[in-house]
Specification:
The chain has no helices and seven strands. By secondary structure, the protein is an all-beta fold. It has a single domain, classed as predicted glycosyltransferase like domains (Thrombin, subunit H, Beta Barrel).
Length: 95
């Protein structure tokens, strides 16, 4: 997909997140890029979840004044050799 056809623009950003999906427990991974619709996770050293897998993501650490980061539900929409692209499932319900 070319950049011109993307629904949401992406920004390159590396953020540490915790990835969790059924049957595999948790993995500490980093983002490659982020958009309003989802993100790409670098996972060269972890097993890759299959296309269509529902996952949960959480920023590692705390936000602002000690607030715990929310858990974000997403679905794997692309699998590459070194990572996965996920689409945020709760995006359309956000205020």
């Amino acid at each position: 997909m070319s950049v011109e056809n993307r629904k949401y623009p992406r920004i390159d950003v590396s953020i540490s997140v915790e990835l969790c999906y059924k049957g595999k427990g948790k993995a500490a991974v980093c983002t490659r890029n982020l958009s309003d619709g989802g993100l790409f996770l670098e996972m060269a050293e972890h097993p890759l979840p299959p296309l269509g897998t529902r996952v949960e993501l959480k920023l590692t650490g705390t936000l602002g004044q000690g607030e715990k980061p929310p858990v974000v539900r997403a679905e794997v929409v692309r699998v590459e050799d070194n990572g996965i692209a996920v689409y945020f499932l709760d995006r359309d319900r956000a205020g």
